[in-house]
Amino acid sequence: MTVSAIEFSRLGPPKLHLYAMKCDKCGELSPWWERNHCYHCGNDSLTEFELKGTGELTNYTVVYYPPREFLGQEPYVVGHIQMDEGVNMPAPVMGVDPDAVEVGTRVDATLRRMKLGHEGDIYYSYKFVVDDE
Ligand SMILES: [Zn+2]
Fold first, then answer.
1. What is the total count of domains within the chain?
2. Is 100 exposed, middle or buried (0-12, 13-18, 19+ CB in 10 A)?
């Protein structure tokens, strides 16, 4: 889900889809990193399932002292987003005032610069922005 700038330019945004893992047995969705084990029934066969990218912020924290590779972005909001398909995703939420962020806010996934690597290389990943509709 996080790619370098080189991979980003090679793959292009259309190939970097937001997905969850769907259980082949019970159909339950697990987060994308859970590739070998269904949260619900324990089945070990999961398939990528594309998400629409919309959801609701269910909890959050404001980061004032980020890890080194995220320096310069603080303060920023990181939260859990309950996707409309039902699965929960942790992700940064951009464009919200850390003092005014609210649980229940509707958010949309977007591809953004995520962090700097050890050699100054740039990585991209999904972040969420407030849905103003
Ligand atoms: Zn299952």
1. 1
2. exposed
